[in-house]
Amino acid sequence: MNITHRPVLLAEAVTALISGPLLHHSNTSNSILMIDGTFGRGGHTQALLAQLDLNARLLSFDKDLDAIAVAEKIKDPRLTIVHNSFAQMDQYAEPESVDGILLDLGISSPQVDEAHRGFSFRRDGPLDMRMNTDYGLTAAQWLEQASQEEITHVIKTYGEERFAFQIAKAIVAKREEGLSPKTTTQLANLVASVVRTREAGQDPATRTFQALRIFINRELEDLELGLKAALTLLKPGARLAVISFHSLEDRIVKQFLQSHAKVEVPRGLPVREKDLPQSALEIIGRVKPSEQEVQENPRARSAIMRIAEKRLEALT
Which of 251, 240, 316 is nearest to 284 (CA)? Predict the structure, then answer.
């Protein structure tokens, strides 16, 4: 199967990073260092390289070995590929040394469309779901050993699934019969047998598959660690752009940016606004895909990109 991946908000993400004050300041004479937190299939990475000068460096991360194999085919001395989560990016750069960071939290089309990865309920394959296939339990292995309470918690918390208890109960019942789901189709059919109602156009298994993927890959934990690392790594004046695809991710990003864009002062203290300490971030804005992009790439429809800039004390 010839599978291509279309990066979401491609031009908007690159523009958001390179249009900040830091990269246009006349005193910025050192080589630029930027980070693409998820290589995927390289769309954002290559677009950034096209905009950076010959002295720039770009670190691109991915947990997925298939993505790393694609990345290693790019023969550009400015690019360094790291087989690791962006949650660990502060191990690869010094504090306040990075000129821009992009975190694209979506999974790539090949990950969804290749049956052997186990991410899709539309294609039959082993129930794997790991981004890094060299590490950790598969979804099938976890479902074989987790308690009903644990399964309920994961599906409810990470999938926001109102039928989480019923789905978990059905999974455990099948397991007790020696029929624990081993393939994507088996799990999808099991969920469909329990979830009788669903939003128009949405498969009954959508939320369960999302929940298991997020849990197996520690996606939300990685996001929280990655945001903290980004704040440490960014130079004053540098920008962070984060593209999220569902409410759980976007809520974490929004709350993180807001919490670092304001200074909390105990009520009643006689403090004048000009005397307040400077907050760490300035929120630049939020961008959603255009109608044309959604028409051309329906997987972009839920994307939201939030942009923030690390505050400068002064540009001289």
Answer: 240
**pLDDT reported for residue 80:** 97
pTM: 0.89
Residues 6+ apart with CB under 8 A from 231: 240, 260, 280, 281, 310
Task: Point out which residues pair with 304 in neighbouring strands.
Answer: 244
3-state secondary structure of 235: strand
Contacts of 248 by beta carbon, 8 Å cutoff, 6+ apart = 158, 160, 214, 220
C-alpha–C-alpha distance, residues 239 and 12, integer Å: 13
Between 154 and 23, the more confident residue is 154
Which segments of the chain belong to CATH 1.10.150.170? 133-216
Q: Quote the CA–CA distance of 128 and 314 in Å, as a whole number.
A: 50
Task: Quick: pLDDT tens for 228-241.
Answer: 999 999 999 999 99
What fold is seen in the domain 10-109+219-310? Rossmann fold (3.40.50)
β-pairing, 281-287 vs 304-310, is antiparallel
Q: In the chain, which residues fall in CATH 3.40.50.150?
A: 10-109+219-310
Residue 72 · residue 81 · CB < 8 Å: yes
Round to the nearest angstrom and report the end-to-end CA distance of the chain. 54
Q: For residues 227 and 204, what is the distance between their CA atoms, to the nearest angstrom? A: 32
What is the average per-residue pLDDT within 26-38? 77
Question: How long a stretch of residues is the chain?
Answer: 316
Six-digit token string for 211? 């929940």
What pairs with residue 286 in β-bridges? 306
Cβ neighbourhood burial of 44 (10 Å; 0-12, 13-18, 19+): buried
18: its two tokens: 């390179």
Residue 145: what pLDDT? 96
Instruction: Retrieve residue 304's tokens.
Output: 């939201």
Q: Return the CATH class of domain 133-216.
A: mainly alpha
